[in-house]
Input
Amino acid sequence: MQRARWINEYTKHHNLPAQYGEVPSRALSNFLSTHQLTPSEKAPQALDVGCGLGRNSRELARHGYEVVGIDIVPSAIEEARAITAAAELDTVCVFTELSSGDPLPFAPRAFDLVIDMMTLHSLNAEERAIYAGELLRVMKPGATFLLHTLATDPASTELIASNPGPEDGSYVLPETDMVEKVFTKEELLALFAGLECVSLKPQTRETTAFGSTFTRTYWIGGFRQT
Ligand SMILES: C[S@@+](CC[C@H](N)C(=O)[O-])C[C@H]1O[C@@H](n2cnc3c(N)ncnc32)[C@H](O)[C@@H]1O
Output
């Protein structure tokens, strides 16, 4: 688990501007615009894995979901709670300090939707295996898993060559010592083989981090519990 490095991100570095704002992840906005709830529907239960300050959790709550956000950084969880209370969403959107690389304290089949907006790449192989197993356990039949994660691309190839990480497809970010893993399509399909892959598409775009703008490729995936 990379808790100490993520604590530094929130307390010292602030290298990832998007996660400090209220604009939700594009992958989530696109999902919500095409999966609208009917007004009479009972509030679906959502899990936001690696929720950070909770921008995506609150967006889900605004769209009618009851949400649990989990993250490993205590100050992020506290701040997520405060922002959510100020937005008067705290009755439907709660936050807990947990690692997605550990067994989760949720009941089997607890969630209709699980989102992972840029957290999977922080886990090591052992944590990913636990995570994939826990997803299968906590998702209801028919539930969706929405994934936004790093793909292999020219930028990651350069980073792997200059600062290789502990496993294939990983590198150490020189600015923060954070290890990131990039994924091939085959790796993601194998990791989440227990779920049905509905869609898994690469998306290349510019992203701002560490005070610079980079071109990176991401996987946007939708998986379904059968
Ligand atoms: C790039 S940020 C994205 C935050 C949020 N999903 C968003 O889009 O605003 C990744 C988040 O994952 C969290 N994280 C990293 N490893 C984690 C783990 N093992 N379990 C839970 N959260 C983790 C970090 O603390 C950080 O908040």
Notes: The mean pLDDT is 94. The beta strands are 45-49, 66-71, 93-97, 111-117, 139-150, 170-172, 179-181, 196-209, 212-224.
